[in-house]
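Researcher: Here's the sequence for the chain we discussed earlier.
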Amino acid sequence: MRNEMNIQFSALSQNESFARVTVAAFIAQLDPTMDELTEIKTVVSEAVTNAIIHGYDNNPNGVVQISVVIEEQFIDLTIHDDGIGIQDIEEARQPLYTTKPELERSGMGFTIMENFMDEVEVISHPGAGTTVRLKKHLAKSKALCN
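Model: Thanks. This is the structure I predict for it:
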């Protein structure tokens, strides 16, 4: 069965925890393991924080959009902003790369997403925002395939 959720919220750092908990509550119906749930919450946190800090440069007038589609044990998660976009996606995906060193950013956001998810796609155009699409098969579906 297919199920879908869409939310949007102001680009405020305090909304990052709202996004993380909301996505976790939605995917809980799939009965993920604690590790899977933690990983998904972490990638949501990373992607939303990137949208707020880098996409909108902490401008609370920005809007972050999240959509989640679940089907069987498969999660398709999209985080989108209409912010400044990414000049060089490949450079931004390098471990330790950050455009905000003064904020003590670690530059590990995309690396974390890539380690915790099965697929990570980043679509961005300068001045036109960024879409991060994350896909994951949960352990139950992997066990069924083996």
